[in-house]
Design brief:
Number of domains: 1
Largest sheet: 7 strands, mixed
Strand order of the largest sheet: 1-6-7-3-4-5-2
CATH topology: At1g16640 B3 domain
Radius of gyration: 12 Å
Distance between the termini: 22 Å
Strand content: 35-45%
Low-confidence stretches: none
Order of helices and strands: EHEEEEHEE
Mean pLDDT: 92
Helix content: 10-25%
Structural class: alpha+beta
CATH class: Mainly Beta
């Protein structure tokens, strides 16, 4: 079964701070609670403990925080402007991988 996903273009802020904004079209895949914990599976490499909130963005879409480990993973694996695929494995786990543009 194909899991729902959302593609994010990574810019300077993502590379500097280690978070991901989830857009309106995909926000329904995460719980409505604020500041919930979430597991972040980074391309089957390792799992990080993170959290998300719905108060940082004015439109109440989730921002997933992965801290310095996520920031470092972005910097090692992505160039500015490349796309990250966020796959919603469950309401409490997301999987991150580089979008295959081939």
């Amino acid at each position: 079964m194909v899991k729902p996903y959302y593609d994010v273009k990574l810019g300077k802020t993502y590379h500097a701070q280690g978070f991901v904004n989830i857009g309106v079209s995909a926000s329904r895949y995460l719980p409505n609670e604020d500041r919930d914990e979430i597991t972040i599976d980074v391309a089957d490499f390792r799992k990080l403990k993170g959290h998300f909130d719905r108060t940082t963005n004015r439109n109440r879409t989730p921002r997933v925080f992965g801290g310095t480990q996520l920031r470092d993973w972005f910097n090692l694996n992505f160039q500015m402007g490349e796309y990250l695929r966020v796959i919603f494995a469950s309401p409490t786990e997301i999987r991150l991988e580089k979008r295959d543009d081939k």
